[in-house]
Amino acid sequence: MKFFIDTANLADIQEAQDMGVLDGVTTNPSLMAKEGITGTANILAHYKKICNVVPGHISAEVIATDYKGIIEEGEKLAALHPQIVVKLPMIADGVKACKYFSDKGVKTNVTLVFSAGQALLAAKAGATYVSPFIGRLDDISTNGLGLISEIRLIYDNYGFETEILAASVRHVMHVIDCAKLGSDVMTGPLSAIKGLLKHPLTDSGLAKFLEDYKNGND
Ligand code: E4P
């Protein structure tokens, strides 16, 4: 399972990269705004900075919602750096643009996916990644993880190569459940990645080992 970090915060990205377990980064316009990165030039420069920290796929989202605008914007993003994955909204023009980019060999991530039907369309259009937002489905009292299972079944039935990128991951149990269900990738905050480290028996076991070593070597 690949681990992506879902943030535009360079310190968090660097920390996850330094752990040695990071495979890529996802961003979105809200995450950019949260870091105070505004204006096209600054946003593009920030994507480049992220590419220089993590040697994996970096999703950069288009703002345009019409086909022509999506293509123009997506081409600019793709030209920025070979690691860039063009992130496209799950709307008719986004799906059409996905087909255009996949035919050209440009990597894509279809975002804002909330149903198996949408995921099927993204795969048909040749998406590199499909991003089902499990946390936001949970937020409205529906079953986010159930969607991962449905997509896994459908993709396996037909051998679709689109990778399932579980998005809107909020905590450690989301990561573990996505791994059990065969999600290819998960993208979450640094806390969800670091949270995997934690177990009280690890902490108390290590403390005891160190204490015994100290007592035997004093
Ligand atoms: C995915 O690519 C999105 O950036 C993200 O996972 C959305 O997560 P949120 O629902 O926590 O905003």
Explain what the structure shows:
- By secondary structure, the chain is α/β, with parallel strands linked by helices.
- It has an 8-stranded parallel barrel with strand order 1-2-3-4-5-6-7-8, surrounded by 7 helices.
- The chain has one domain: Aldolase class I (TIM Barrel).
- The mean pLDDT is 98.
- The radius of gyration is 19 Å and the shape is globular.
- Helix content is 54%, strand content 17%.
- Helix 6 (116-124) runs parallel beside helix 8 (144-158).
- The chain is built from 11 helices and 8 strands.
- Strand 3 (57-61), helix 4 (67-80) and strand 4 form a beta-alpha-beta unit.
- The chain binds erythose-4-phosphate (E4P).
- Erythose-4-phosphate binds next to helix 7.
How do the helices and strands line up, and which of them pair or pack?
Elements: E1 2-6, H1 10-19, E2 24-26, H2 29-34, H3 40-53, E3 57-61, H4 67-80, E4 84-89, H5 92-103, E5 108-113, H6 116-124, E6 129-132, H7 134-139, H8 144-158, E7 163-166, H9 172-180, E8 185-188, H10 190-194, H11 200-217
Parallel strand pairs: 1-2, 1-8, 2-3, 3-4, 4-5, 5-6, 6-7, 7-8
Erythose-4-phosphate binds next to helix 7.
* Arrangement of strands in the largest sheet: 1-2-3-4-5-6-7-8
Under CATH, the topology is which? TIM Barrel
Instruction: Return the CATH architecture.
Output: Alpha-Beta Barrel
Helix content: 40-55%
Query: Averaged pLDDT, please?
Result: 98
How many helix segments?
11
Rg of Cα set:
19 Å
Task: Report the β-strand fraction as a percent range.
Answer: 15-25%
Biggest sheet record? 8 strands, parallel, barrel
Say which molecules are bound, naming each kind only once: erythose-4-phosphate
> What is the number of strand segments?
8
CATH-assigned homologous superfamily: Aldolase class I
CATH class: Alpha Beta
Give me the strand/helix succession: EHEHHEHEHEHEHHEHEHH
Described by the principal axes of the CA atoms, the overall outline is globular
Tally of separate domains: 1
Return residue spans where pLDDT drops below 50 for at least 5 consecutive residues: none
Q: Helix- and strand-based class?
A: alpha/beta
